[in-house]
Design brief:
It contains two helices and nine strands. By secondary structure, it is of the alpha+beta class. Strand 4 and strand 5 form a beta hairpin. The longest helix has about 35 residues. It is globular. The termini are far apart.
Protein backbone atom coordinates (compact mmCIF):
# COMPACT_ATOMS: atom_id res chain seq x y z
CA UNK A 1 0.00 0.00 0.00
CA UNK A 2 1.11 3.49 -0.70
CA UNK A 3 1.30 6.22 1.92
CA UNK A 4 -2.12 7.50 0.88
CA UNK A 5 -3.58 4.00 1.26
CA UNK A 6 -3.02 4.15 5.04
CA UNK A 7 -4.96 7.34 5.61
CA UNK A 8 -8.38 5.68 5.62
CA UNK A 9 -7.55 2.88 8.08
CA UNK A 10 -5.58 5.32 10.25
CA UNK A 11 -8.56 7.70 10.33
CA UNK A 12 -10.88 4.84 11.32
CA UNK A 13 -8.46 3.71 14.03
CA UNK A 14 -8.20 7.25 15.44
CA UNK A 15 -11.98 7.64 15.37
CA UNK A 16 -12.49 4.32 17.20
CA UNK A 17 -9.85 5.29 19.75
CA UNK A 18 -11.45 8.71 20.33
CA UNK A 19 -14.93 7.21 20.71
CA UNK A 20 -13.63 4.53 23.09
CA UNK A 21 -11.88 7.15 25.19
CA UNK A 22 -14.98 9.37 25.30
CA UNK A 23 -17.16 6.39 26.22
CA UNK A 24 -14.84 5.41 29.06
CA UNK A 25 -14.65 8.98 30.38
CA UNK A 26 -18.44 9.29 30.39
CA UNK A 27 -19.37 5.79 31.52
CA UNK A 28 -16.64 4.88 34.00
CA UNK A 29 -17.55 7.32 36.82
CA UNK A 30 -21.18 6.15 36.81
CA UNK A 31 -20.09 2.51 36.76
CA UNK A 32 -17.72 3.07 39.70
CA UNK A 33 -20.42 4.92 41.66
CA UNK A 34 -22.83 2.06 40.96
CA UNK A 35 -20.37 -0.38 42.52
CA UNK A 36 -19.85 1.90 45.54
CA UNK A 37 -23.61 2.29 46.04
CA UNK A 38 -24.08 -1.49 45.86
CA UNK A 39 -21.33 -2.06 48.43
CA UNK A 40 -22.61 0.61 50.82
CA UNK A 41 -26.33 -0.10 50.54
CA UNK A 42 -26.42 -3.18 52.80
CA UNK A 43 -28.30 -1.02 55.35
CA UNK A 44 -30.65 0.21 52.63
CA UNK A 45 -30.87 3.17 50.29
CA UNK A 46 -31.78 6.58 51.76
CA UNK A 47 -30.75 5.29 55.18
CA UNK A 48 -27.58 6.06 57.10
CA UNK A 49 -25.53 3.03 58.11
CA UNK A 50 -22.69 3.36 60.58
CA UNK A 51 -20.06 0.84 59.57
CA UNK A 52 -17.38 -0.94 61.48
CA UNK A 53 -13.77 0.08 61.04
CA UNK A 54 -12.34 -0.98 57.71
CA UNK A 55 -9.96 -3.92 57.70
CA UNK A 56 -8.16 -5.64 54.83
CA UNK A 57 -11.04 -8.18 54.79
CA UNK A 58 -13.77 -5.51 55.00
CA UNK A 59 -13.18 -2.56 52.68
CA UNK A 60 -16.48 -1.21 51.40
CA UNK A 61 -14.73 1.81 49.91
CA UNK A 62 -11.43 2.07 48.08
CA UNK A 63 -8.43 2.81 50.29
CA UNK A 64 -10.24 3.55 53.57
CA UNK A 65 -8.30 5.24 56.34
CA UNK A 66 -7.81 2.96 59.37
CA UNK A 67 -8.33 5.87 61.81
CA UNK A 68 -11.69 6.96 60.37
CA UNK A 69 -15.10 5.54 61.14
CA UNK A 70 -17.37 5.85 58.10
CA UNK A 71 -21.13 6.36 58.05
CA UNK A 72 -22.72 6.16 54.62
CA UNK A 73 -26.06 6.99 53.07
CA UNK A 74 -26.36 5.76 49.49
CA UNK A 75 -29.22 7.82 48.11
CA UNK A 76 -31.79 7.77 45.33
CA UNK A 77 -33.75 10.98 44.75
CA UNK A 78 -36.44 9.51 42.48
CA UNK A 79 -38.93 9.40 45.40
CA UNK A 80 -38.11 12.89 46.63
CA UNK A 81 -35.34 14.95 48.14
CA UNK A 82 -33.14 13.59 50.91
CA UNK A 83 -32.44 15.30 54.23
CA UNK A 84 -29.09 14.53 55.85
CA UNK A 85 -28.70 15.41 59.53
CA UNK A 86 -25.16 15.47 60.91
CA UNK A 87 -24.47 15.59 64.63
CA UNK A 88 -20.75 16.13 65.20
CA UNK A 89 -19.10 14.24 68.06
CA UNK A 90 -17.66 16.76 70.51
CA UNK A 91 -13.89 17.07 70.35
CA UNK A 92 -13.57 14.95 67.18
CA UNK A 93 -12.85 15.89 63.63
CA UNK A 94 -15.69 14.85 61.37
CA UNK A 95 -16.81 15.72 57.87
CA UNK A 96 -19.73 15.19 55.51
CA UNK A 97 -19.01 14.76 51.81
CA UNK A 98 -21.77 14.30 49.25
CA UNK A 99 -20.90 12.60 45.97
CA UNK A 100 -23.20 12.57 42.95
CA UNK A 101 -23.70 9.69 40.54
CA UNK A 102 -20.65 10.74 38.50
CA UNK A 103 -18.39 10.65 41.60
CA UNK A 104 -18.23 14.47 41.71
CA UNK A 105 -18.09 16.01 45.18
CA UNK A 106 -21.09 18.36 45.37
CA UNK A 107 -20.92 19.32 49.06
CA UNK A 108 -18.39 19.22 51.92
CA UNK A 109 -18.61 20.46 55.49
CA UNK A 110 -16.52 19.57 58.53
CA UNK A 111 -17.10 20.03 62.26
CA UNK A 112 -14.99 23.21 62.34
CA UNK A 113 -17.05 24.83 59.57
CA UNK A 114 -20.21 23.76 61.43
CA UNK A 115 -18.80 25.27 64.67
CA UNK A 116 -19.35 21.87 66.31
CA UNK A 117 -23.13 22.22 65.98
CA UNK A 118 -25.55 19.82 64.31
CA UNK A 119 -26.66 20.76 60.80
CA UNK A 120 -29.10 19.58 58.15
CA UNK A 121 -28.91 19.72 54.40
CA UNK A 122 -31.28 18.64 51.69
CA UNK A 123 -30.06 16.97 48.53
CA UNK A 124 -32.54 17.52 45.72
CA UNK A 125 -33.04 17.41 41.98
CA UNK A 126 -33.61 20.80 40.29
CA UNK A 127 -37.41 20.35 40.15
CA UNK A 128 -37.89 19.01 43.70
CA UNK A 129 -39.35 21.35 46.30
CA UNK A 130 -37.61 21.65 49.65
CA UNK A 131 -38.82 23.31 52.84
CA UNK A 132 -37.92 27.02 52.98
CA UNK A 133 -34.82 27.77 55.02
CA UNK A 134 -33.32 24.30 54.65
CA UNK A 135 -29.84 24.48 53.14
CA UNK A 136 -30.15 22.72 49.80
CA UNK A 137 -27.63 21.06 47.52
CA UNK A 138 -29.00 20.70 43.97
CA UNK A 139 -27.86 17.93 41.65
CA UNK A 140 -28.93 16.58 38.27
CA UNK A 141 -27.91 13.05 39.27
CA UNK A 142 -30.60 10.90 40.93
CA UNK A 143 -28.13 8.72 42.82
CA UNK A 144 -25.05 9.25 44.95
CA UNK A 145 -23.56 8.80 48.40
CA UNK A 146 -23.46 11.00 51.50
CA UNK A 147 -20.39 9.97 53.52
CA UNK A 148 -19.52 11.00 57.08
CA UNK A 149 -16.00 10.50 58.36
CA UNK A 150 -15.22 10.52 62.09
CA UNK A 151 -11.62 10.61 63.31
CA UNK A 152 -10.66 8.13 66.02
CA UNK A 153 -7.63 8.31 68.27
CA UNK A 154 -7.74 4.56 68.96
CA UNK A 155 -9.79 1.83 67.23
CA UNK A 156 -10.98 0.52 70.62
CA UNK A 157 -13.01 3.68 71.24
CA UNK A 158 -15.46 3.05 68.38
CA UNK A 159 -18.03 1.15 70.51
CA UNK A 160 -18.32 4.12 72.92
CA UNK A 161 -19.03 6.44 69.97
CA UNK A 162 -21.78 4.34 68.35
CA UNK A 163 -24.67 6.13 70.09
CA UNK A 164 -23.24 9.51 69.06
CA UNK A 165 -22.78 8.30 65.47
CA UNK A 166 -26.36 7.02 65.38
CA UNK A 167 -27.64 10.59 65.78
CA UNK A 168 -26.53 11.36 62.21
CA UNK A 169 -29.27 10.27 59.80
CA UNK A 170 -30.66 10.58 56.30
CA UNK A 171 -34.18 10.11 55.01
CA UNK A 172 -36.33 10.88 51.99
CA UNK A 173 -38.80 13.70 52.42
CA UNK A 174 -41.92 13.59 50.28
CA UNK A 175 -42.77 17.10 49.14
CA UNK A 176 -44.69 18.24 46.07
CA UNK A 177 -42.69 19.16 42.97
CA UNK A 178 -41.97 22.83 42.33
CA UNK A 179 -44.10 24.32 39.59
Amino acid sequence: LSMTGWRGPLAVLLLVAALSFAGAMIGMPRALMGVAIDRLSAGGVNRMSHGALATPENQPIVRPSPDLAYSACPYDLTSGPLVVTVVPVAGRYSSLSVFDGRTDVIFVRNDVQAAGRPYRIAIALPDQAVAPGLETVRTRETQGIALIRLLLTRPEELPQLQSARAQSTCATIALPSAK
